[in-house]
Amino acid sequence: MHIAVVGLSHRTAPVEVREKLSIPEQTMEESLHNLRNHEQVLEASILSTCNRLEIYTLVRNPDLGIAAVRDFLSGHSGLESRDLSPHLFTYHHDEAIAHLMRVTAGLDSLVLGEGQILSQVKKMMRLGQEHKSIGPILNRLLTQAVSTGKRVRSETNLSTGAVSVSSAAVELAQLKLGQSRGQDALVTLETEQIAVVGAGRMSRLLLQHLQAKGASGVVLLNRTIERASALATDFPNLPIQCRGLDDLDQCLSTCSLVFTSTAVDDPIIDANRLNALNRRSSLRLVDIGVPRNIASDVRDVSGVESHDVDDLQEVVERNQEARQQVAREAEGLLLEEGRLFLEWWDSLEAVPTINRLRASLEEIRVEELTKALSRMGPDFSARERKVVEALTKGMINKILHTPVTQLRSPQQRSERQQALQVVEKIFDLESGAAAQD
Ligand SMILES: NC(=O)c1ccc[n+]([C@@H]2O[C@H](COP(=O)([O-])OP(=O)(O)OC[C@H]3O[C@@H](n4cnc5c(N)ncnc54)[C@H](OP(=O)(O)O)[C@@H]3O)[C@@H](O)[C@H]2O)c1
Predict the structure, then answer these.
(1) Residues 295 and 270: beta-carbon distance below 8 Å
(2) Which has fewest Cβ within 10 Å: 6, 138, 229, 334?
(3) Which atom of ligand 1 has the smallest separation from the CA of 50?
(4) Is the CB of 264 within 6 Å of ligand 1?
(5) How many angstroms separate the alpha carbon of residue 198 from the centre of ligand 1?
(6) How many CB atoms lie within 10 A of CB 141?
(7) 287 three-class SS
(8) Residue 79 C-alpha to ligand 1 middle, in angstroms?
(9) DSSP 103-130
(10) Which residues are annotated as catalytic?
(11) What is the DSSP letter of 321?
(12) CB-ligand 1 contact for 5 (6 Å cutoff)
């Protein structure tokens, strides 16, 4: 058995490729079942976020199992394998475990240390459990990754400053506005006419950062207006007008800065839509949706500046240096957690031998006990039989305790394999192996 991860991220693929691989929650069950139906794939879980699509898996054979996952990705995205392959990474075993730990801690995120990834890894675990695509190995690995993510956030300063894709989006808007005025600095948003499209988690964070950066008011548009109204009540100090998506054209005509963060499959704003409007002279669009909410052709529309999630790199790089130092501190913690998982994994190697040893001693116990009881005859009461039965079981458990603990304890793989061979040999376990496993 072999643990591996196959996937792509903002480091290996642009947003136009990532959006083709995104798997929404509604179709996750089907995707997990498709993967698990392959005879090479023993366990599988999918992490689908705006910046990555990663498949963590336990496979029988590394080459065949990984080929199955790659085929799945190619089929799902509709991309030919030759077009997709240059964007894919594959990590095996200890590297896959280390990668998951880094991802969960936010060290592989576009915005270093952002907090959303931890809940996304929790969600991947929950969906894997609900749809029964993960078993004991990935369950243990994901549980350990989540607790590592929590440790990093509570034991280091990585998450201070409430960083997120949304905060980077607001900073990008400030930076670009500054640059358009000839300043290389973040400017206040006080005079901008701002709209936010979407009222989910990322929009909540957008509102928080817009408020913090001086926005004097926001138009909040959402498919479900009630959800926008509920969100607005959490910002009593920020004037928010809530509207339905029917008012999108009007907002695009009057606003100067529009953020989009809805979970749509296809763009809701494109060049045709903008060209049909009687717009004010300049409009800046910042889209953090993946799949993108704004089509790339809007970049050709005069008076429109448009940015997508990949453009956030520019502001992110400005802030990374201080966080990199904290990230280095977190790496030690990740190594420790990765090692703990590997020790547990290695200890599993001893399980078949331990099971055979137990079964062999149990067979002897039952055989000898049956003989002894038959010699005792009918005078031996049921209570006395129970006492003798418990006595023999207790003796076997005591005898096994130390060797079983030793075989399971953390040690070099070669040492464990040597010890397992000795146990197999001296108790003659190999001959009955197939029957006992
Ligand atoms: N979560 C993250 O860490 C993260 C980071 C960066 C970017 N993103 C991207 O940001 C976007 C929003 O993410 P989120 O986490 O905020 O999602 P969310 O909390 O699930 O909210 C989804 C939003 O999208 C709207 N929506 C869904 N389907 C729609 C449709 N067919 N037409 C119109 N509106 C629709 C929902 O409107 P209703 O209220 O009417 O359902 C809601 O406003 C996604 O594209 C995601 O990939 C997320």
Answers:
(1) yes
(2) 229
(3) 47
(4) yes
(5) 6
(6) 25
(7) strand
(8) 25
(9) HHHTTTSSSTT-SHHHHHHHHHHHHHHH
(10) 50
(11) H
(12) no
167 C-beta closer than 6 A to ligand 1: no
* Model pLDDT, residue 273: 96
CATH number of 165-307: 3.40.50.720
Does the domain at residues 2-160+323-346 carry the CATH identifier 3.30.460.30?
yes
Which of ligand 1's atoms lies nearest the C-alpha of 288?
7
Q: Which atom of ligand 1 is nearest to the CA of 262?
A: 24
Give 387-423 pLDDT, tens digit per residue: 999 999 999 999 999 999 988 887 777 888 889 999 9
- CA 218 vs CA 238, 259, 274, 286, 383: distances in Å: 8, 10, 20, 14, 80
The tokens describing 262, both together, are 């809805």
Whether residue 260 has its Cβ less than 6 Å from ligand 1: no
- The answer to whether the CB of 225 is under 6 A from ligand 1 is no
User: What pLDDT band is residue 163 in, cutting at 50, 70 and 90?
Assistant: confident
Predicted TM-score of the model (pTM): 0.82
Domain boundaries, the chain: 2-160+323-346, 165-307, 349-436
